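USER:
Make up one protein:

ASSISTANT:
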Amino acid sequence: MTDGWRVEEASAAALPSLLAIARASFREPWSAAALRAELAREDVRCLVARDARGEPAGYLLARRVLDELQVSSVAVAPGRRGRGVGRALLEAALAREGARGLRVATLEVRAGSEAALALYRAAGFEVVGRRPRYYRGGEDALLLDRPFPDPAP
């Protein structure tokens, strides 16, 4: 439990809930086929945060690539935002994957997504680059990194 949220690995059975959260969260959500394909990959981790009743409140998708954790999606159900769901998911992912000897966590976010930027900055991410007009409609993407601490000798 993190901040009252139970964070666990998502199974394929969680797909309908994850899709509903994605559709309510993103202007350009992943399709069912794309999300299903991601969940089937060996190098992808999908964490889901559940409330006390077991209802999904949010999810995080990330992929390990060499010594990096690439966070590809963090989504929180609209009625659950501002309650620590995103923080619980990020903390769990960073703790689990950081223990595996990774060097850095990376992600990209819409430049105008102030709530997401605040969450990521609080988790230690820093802006390291920008992709101009990356998203439909011309919004820039910000590239963020967060190094993992060096493992103890």
Summary: The chain has a mean pLDDT of 91. The chain has four helices and seven strands.
